[in-house]
Amino acid sequence: MAKRASSKSKGKAKSKTPSPAAQLRSLKRRVVRGAFKLVLAVLGLLIALVLLFAVINPPTTPYMFSEGRRLGGVDQQWVALEDVAPVMARSVVAAEDANFCEHWGFDLAAIKRAIAEGSNRGASTLSQQTVKNVYLWHGRTWLRKALEAGITPLVETVWTKRRIIEVYLNVAEFDEGIFGVDAAAQHYFGVIPAKLTATQAARLAAILPSPKTRSAARPSAAVRKRSAQIRDGAATISKDGRAACFES
């Protein structure tokens, strides 16, 4: 006499494999959850790094690391802002972001002018450039610009203006393989940053838009002209108070 199938066996027999549509929905949910967790993890890491670098000097940057691998090393030594001639900080502000002390990371007036002129030259603030140099990669992509726009207000909130200038001066590229004001001052003029003159500081600031094609030690006529403008601008922002936020 044949044995009757157990109720457990019957339950198994009745279970069905999920339909392709159900499997696809399940896969989509897993992908969305995974992407959401990844975004949260990246945001958490960025916030942690912003908080960390407010007090700890960045050991390197993505661009500095890639250049180091390409060139077999780079020249960069960290120097505190108090050990840099004050005119150097004023010069980079005059050259790149004259309203640095007056904005919260974005110079809206400069952005409007750039849009009207059909160019983004001069619209990027020192805060944005610092974020790009420290946390992101070089290149004109929408993803990088979006990340830059998101991180910049956070940096402005957590860091002081003085800290932004200090980090900027220490990670900016001044020549191929030359990063930071300490390496730049010695590379071009054979002096420590504290001994930079107004003219030397202005020349270093003048080459920043294109450091691999310009020289502070052997300036072209265009660099000399730009340096003179920066030197005058540095003196002006010192007199009118626009340097107060990073010199106090």
From TrEMBL:
<comment type="function">
    <text>Peptidoglycan polymerase that catalyzes glycan chain elongation from lipid-linked precursors.</text>
</comment>
<keyword id="KW-0472">Membrane</keyword>
<keyword id="KW-0812">Transmembrane</keyword>
<feature type="compositionally biased region" description="Basic residues">
    <location>
        <begin position="1"/>
        <end position="15"/>
    </location>
</feature>
<dbReference type="GO" id="GO:0008360">
    <property type="term" value="P:regulation of cell shape"/>
</dbReference>
<dbReference type="GO" id="GO:0005886">
    <property type="term" value="C:plasma membrane"/>
</dbReference>
<protein>
    <recommendedName>
        <fullName>Biosynthetic peptidoglycan transglycosylase</fullName>
        <ecNumber>2.4.99.28</ecNumber>
    </recommendedName>
</protein>
<keyword id="KW-0328">Glycosyltransferase</keyword>
<dbReference type="GO" id="GO:0016763">
    <property type="term" value="F:pentosyltransferase activity"/>
</dbReference>
<keyword id="KW-0997">Cell inner membrane</keyword>
<keyword id="KW-0808">Transferase</keyword>
<comment type="similarity">
    <text>Belongs to the glycosyltransferase 51 family.</text>
</comment>
<keyword id="KW-1133">Transmembrane helix</keyword>
<comment type="pathway">
    <text>Cell wall biogenesis; peptidoglycan biosynthesis.</text>
</comment>
<keyword id="KW-1003">Cell membrane</keyword>
<dbReference type="InterPro" id="IPR011812">
    <property type="entry name" value="Pep_trsgly"/>
</dbReference>
<feature type="domain" description="Glycosyl transferase family 51">
    <location>
        <begin position="74"/>
        <end position="230"/>
    </location>
</feature>
<dbReference type="GO" id="GO:0071555">
    <property type="term" value="P:cell wall organization"/>
</dbReference>
<feature type="region of interest" description="Disordered">
    <location>
        <begin position="1"/>
        <end position="22"/>
    </location>
</feature>
<keyword id="KW-0133">Cell shape</keyword>
<dbReference type="GO" id="GO:0009252">
    <property type="term" value="P:peptidoglycan biosynthetic process"/>
</dbReference>
<dbReference type="GO" id="GO:0008955">
    <property type="term" value="F:peptidoglycan glycosyltransferase activity"/>
</dbReference>
<dbReference type="InterPro" id="IPR023346">
    <property type="entry name" value="Lysozyme-like_dom_sf"/>
</dbReference>
<keyword id="KW-0961">Cell wall biogenesis/degradation</keyword>
<feature type="transmembrane region" description="Helical">
    <location>
        <begin position="35"/>
        <end position="56"/>
    </location>
</feature>
<dbReference type="InterPro" id="IPR001264">
    <property type="entry name" value="Glyco_trans_51"/>
</dbReference>
<dbReference type="Pfam" id="PF00912">
    <property type="entry name" value="Transgly"/>
</dbReference>
<dbReference type="GO" id="GO:0009274">
    <property type="term" value="C:peptidoglycan-based cell wall"/>
</dbReference>
<dbReference type="InterPro" id="IPR036950">
    <property type="entry name" value="PBP_transglycosylase"/>
</dbReference>
<keyword id="KW-0573">Peptidoglycan synthesis</keyword>
